[in-house]
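Input sequence (414 aa), recorded before submission:
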Amino acid sequence: MDILINIPIYILLFSTLYFEVFVIVTYFEEVDQFTLIPSVPRDPETSPSVTIMVPAWNEGRTILGTVDSLLALDYPKDKLSIFIIDDGSTDDTLQVAKTFEHNPQVRIFTKPNGGKHTAVNLGIDNCTSELIGCLDADSFVDPKALQEIIPFFDNPEVMAVTPSVQIWKPDNLLRRIQAAEYMVGEFTRKIFSRLNALYVTPGPFSIYRNEVFEKIGKFAKAYNTEDMEMALRMQANHMKIENAHNALVFTVSPKTIHALYKQRVRWVSGFLKNAFFNYRFMFFKREYGNLGALTMPFAFSSIFVALFFYVLYVKNIFTFISVKYLEYTALGFHFGFPHGFDWFSVNLEFRRLIIYLLFFCTIFFVLMGARMVMRKFRISRDMLYFLAFYGFIAPFWLIRSLYNLLTTKEAHWR
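Predicted structure, token format:
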């Protein structure tokens, strides 16, 4: 029986380790692409025209700062337009937006509530610029962000560019965990861009060529993850997506565990459903490059792998507790400290050795992500919180997302 249990465990451990080592090797092969040197400002005359859309539903508390950050972008004012699109808000979002109505760079639209994708599509219908971007109304851009993104479009094959999305002012334990998670996410996103395997263009400040929407259509509802579906549709049509890791964008993250749970259920459910129902034809197909051969299958299966090991971990904890309880019941409680340390007492059983390697790979991802965002190697509390707690909270939204996939139940925005 133990053999039957150990075989799938070893297979899953080896496949996970293989992928993480592959990511690390890719990093060292492409290390020159991870430079932290800012791009050189462009000649205003050669800068392409850009329209940034701000779809908003009940974002009265944050939209003012969002638009102010766009107006502060280091970019020629005559080449930058901002569309604020009120999606039938029931708070003061439209009233706050109207404070910008006399600014020549800003246009304001309002429509009945129909979802984020309908708001963005309204903006696309009214846009004539060469490049089109989107910024969620709870996010803020660094003044240099657009200047960091634009040079990637000098390559005519690049159809979209994603930024480095980070957490805005992490002020509690949960947000600090997310801050480290987002740093890791940026590191892997940059790796995926080198493999031409990005499968999401985040709502905060992803920039597209206008022709993308002319060729493959506008945004769809896509299980409330329209930015993910658009990236997958682009990849299915062999359109290149790049990542500008120096282009910093900050987003207001969930403050409570309930809000985080709902957000992540929507994200993971959307990925599972988009991948399985709409784009599973890309799985293991060489014509879709590294995305189809490696990234998508691994991302899809990793959710099941994570849950498998979480269940196994919980089972081992209960087994350990029950054994210790029986020992203490029979022999009584004995308190004391171990005398000395013996390296031969370290458990180097092969399965545990693989787990140790996986853990060190994760630490490497955290450190490299922090270096990319903070511009230096630095160990912070955020990293420690992430390593200590993330593995215990993530399985809850993974379980619910898997349930949503199996029952076709839809995850809601809020």
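Checked by second reader. The chain has two domains: 1-35+140-328+347-414, 49-137.
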